[in-house]
């Protein structure tokens, strides 16, 4: 079982070069700023769609970072998806608070 876990971690962490991780971090930051500013402009649907996109990017980033630190593969999946879900939920609640819906 330990060999399978190491194989998944190596495979996942080798999928992304440092340049790709840097690019994804910049994209996640830009989308986060866009998600925070769109409700003020009245673009609620676009903000919700952007929050969904941000969820997937954040989940990937967190999972890859955990895989690079040799965390158990299943733990990295649960922590990555859970963290991204909580961040996205906070953003969606913020959108609802700003728009009143």
UniProtKB/TrEMBL annotation:
Which keywords, in A-to-Z order, does the entry hold?
Membrane, Transmembrane, Transmembrane helix
The transmembrane segments are 21-40, 71-97
The domain of life is Bacteria
Transmembrane recorded as keyword: yes
Q: What is this protein called?
A: Integral membrane protein
Instruction: Say which species the protein is native to.
Output: Lactiplantibacillus fabifermentans DSM 21115
């Amino acid at each position: 079982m330990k060999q399978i876990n190491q194989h998944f971690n190596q495979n996942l962490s080798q999928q992304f070069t440092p340049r790709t991780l840097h690019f994804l971090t910049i994209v996640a930051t830009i989308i986060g700023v866009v998600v925070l500013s769109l409700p003020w402009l009245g673009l609620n649907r676009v903000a919700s769609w952007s929050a969904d996109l941000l969820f997937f990017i954040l989940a990937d980033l967190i999972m890859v970072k955990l895989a690079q630190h040799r965390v158990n593969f299943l733990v990295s999946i649960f922590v990555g998806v859970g963290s991204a879900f909580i961040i996205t939920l906070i953003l969606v609640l913020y959108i609802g608070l700003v728009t009143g819906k």
